[in-house]
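Q&A FORM
Asked by: J.P.
Topic: structure of Flavin-dependent thymidylate synthase

PROVIDED:
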Amino acid sequence: MPLTPEQQAEIAALRAETRPTFRPVAPGIERRLHEAVPVLDHGFVRVVDYMGDDAAIVQAARVSYGRGTRAVSSDEALIRYLMRHAHTTPFEMCEVKFHVKLPVFVARQWIRHRTASVNEYSARYSVLDREFYIPAPEHLAAQSTTNNQGRGAALTGEEAERVLRWLREDAMRAYDHYEAMIATDGQQGLARELARMNLPANVYTQWYWKVNLHNLLHFLRLRIDPHAQWEIRAYAGVIASIVRDWVPIAWRAFEDYRLNAVTLSAQAVEVLRRRLRGNGWPSRTAE
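REPLIED BY: S.T.
REPLY: Here is the structure written out as tokens.
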């Protein structure tokens, strides 16, 4: 199951409790606090805590102490200016902490984003659960013929059935041996920190991941891109929906100036200038 009974009880208690606060709150993300959103077959993403909102970005940029009488439209204009001109520091005033359950091979991609604070479930101290990521048939794809690090069309027929069977059988066999190695009934039992090496990369792990908004948006720009691996895109999509609720003004600016924007080289800019002047395409000899 995505959540243990203990985690479910903890989340239920947290969501049932309300506390008065003097700190600014963002209604969009407040509604999503502690909600575990399912991802893949056993994973999830949930917001544990956050700091700041769209107003915090504006406050930091203006070095002020509050909104005062400024109109929302002026705040949005400022946030869009900051995003457009890559003034990133004000976006670092917002932070969010996630609890994520994910396959180890996804975690190894994720951890390459070295701009967050991470604390992972310790397989040296605790025993990992018998939970493995097994792709749905539509995501069981062949190697791409044009991209060495991508996938192509989905496997079909006997090949798909054979691969799924091997994935399940190998994962279960590895876990059976893992359990047997750490067992102390009639034997010393291998240390957990050594026994874990036998587990496959599709076993699930968990971590707390705390990141500021600037670095989170950079993560999302890369990981919701169609070229990213589908499994990490599934997590990035859930996180993107949370960020959209949390800082809607910053998210719209991010979509316009980062996510859906295009960066042109100096050569491409020169080509466009020539075309707009009606001079046509530059010749190879002119280059």
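FOLLOW-UP: The chain is about 45% helix and 15% strand.
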